[in-house]
Amino acid sequence: MFSSSTVSTLLRQYAISWSIIPVRSKNYLNRPRLRNPVWFVKKTRTLHNEQFTEDNTAFLNEVKRETILSAAQRSQSNLLKLAHGEQNGQLAQWAPGLKRTGVIAKKIGQYPLWTKDGQKIRTTLLQIVDNEVVKYIPPEEYRPAQEPRQSRNWRKPYGCLLVGAEHGDPSLFTKEYAGLFHESGVLPKKHLCRFIVSPEAQLPSGTALTVSHFRVGDFVDVRGLTVDRGFQGVVKRHGFKGMPKSHGVTKTHRRPGNIGAGGNKARVWPGTRLPGHMGNRWRVLRGLRILRINPQYNVMWVMGSNIAGNTNGIVYIYDTILPLRRHGAKGVPAGPPPFPTALEPLPADSGDIWLEDLHDFRKLSITYSAGSE
């Protein structure tokens, strides 16, 4: 055995110089996905000229309309059966810690609203288009191809609810993609999304999800895909100021400049802000408040004007995970939310529902008395 003095002497003779090179950020692995995973089923098929006559085309369009109307009536009947407890026995009651399903919405534009004291609020309009439950996968059967970042909770495991949005023409989809909807009895949808839910929040196939799933005043998280800007420089991608426009500057007005990669490093640090691909990344805005709801067109006004995505782009809405804005927190509407969803949606002719702090333009704001001049 060596003594401590001998070991220290050997370490001094064979000293190893350790150098720690810092990393500026860990987002260098967050690159845009340009292709779907290999296990995704191909959605659209190759179209050919079927050489239909005008009468045949009109007949096929009429059949499509009748099929869509019957599917809408069937989804409403499923809601009624669920409300009366005819499916899956007794419904579970809401409790803190349970996780409801989300919805798929379309970003249709922006619109300003005003409070009663005259403050302007910028909002984004999100429309929930033909949302229906396609399938529920129980926790013991749900095995995703890629495990989520958070560890699986074995005490209270979550299931998976597959939700589809926006009716599509069945003749435009492949046989494999249309087969995903065969067992559920739902028409093929253009968009699909998986939501992690509690087993108590499961819904039968064909259940419609409307804007009544949320309440005015609730806080939600919105996930969307940012606009794809392509390859951009540092001025547009990272907001660099750039070099002066004159006084000896030659052809470096919009260049990044020195990146400090010399010396012992002699390399580019991961995470250095340089030109590259901009956009086409998933971003989540958390804690956005619902200010207004229109039951007729399934439209909600959500606070904020920076929701990711193009106009008519698809976003995903679900209950917020922020602790101070969840259901039951201070400032959130009292009472339990619609669980597992709104079993009796608001009637279409009920009109818009506004937050109490907002100014409703349907009401008079200036009144004149009879004796005023």
From TrEMBL:
Top-level taxon: Eukaryota
Gene Ontology cellular component list: mitochondrial large ribosomal subunit
SUPFAM superfamilies the record matches: Translation proteins
GO MF: structural constituent of ribosome
Residue segments, region Disordered: 242-272
Any one GO BP annotation for this protein: translation
Keyword list, A-Z: Ribonucleoprotein, Ribosomal protein
InterPro entries: Ribosomal_uL3, Ribosomal_uL3_bac/org-type, Transl_B-barrel_sf
Family affiliation: Belongs to the universal ribosomal protein uL3 family.
Protein name (record): Large ribosomal subunit protein uL3m
Lineage, top ranks: Eukaryota, Metazoa, Ecdysozoa, Arthropoda, Hexapoda
